[in-house]
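pasting for ref
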Amino acid sequence: MKKISHIFFSMQTMGTLMLIFAFAIGTATFIENDFGATGAKAVVYNALWFNILLILLAINLTGRIILDKLYMPKKFTIFLFHFSFLIILIGAGIT
């Protein structure tokens, strides 16, 4: 169990997921430029792999918040910063 949590909640995993996310939305920008918004939605934004990527990002971020104990009063500003990204990811998943 500890090995699984280390894989899911590591900074290396978050960095890898963020690079994949950046590449995906960059690619979607070029697709949208050439084929319109419907093309980008069909290939990237509404794809199952993109939604799984958003879920993995949210899980990793939540795990890092808990493991680093960012909810403690002296780390509240860092918690608020990371929690805002979690809200953005949830909003992206809903739309």
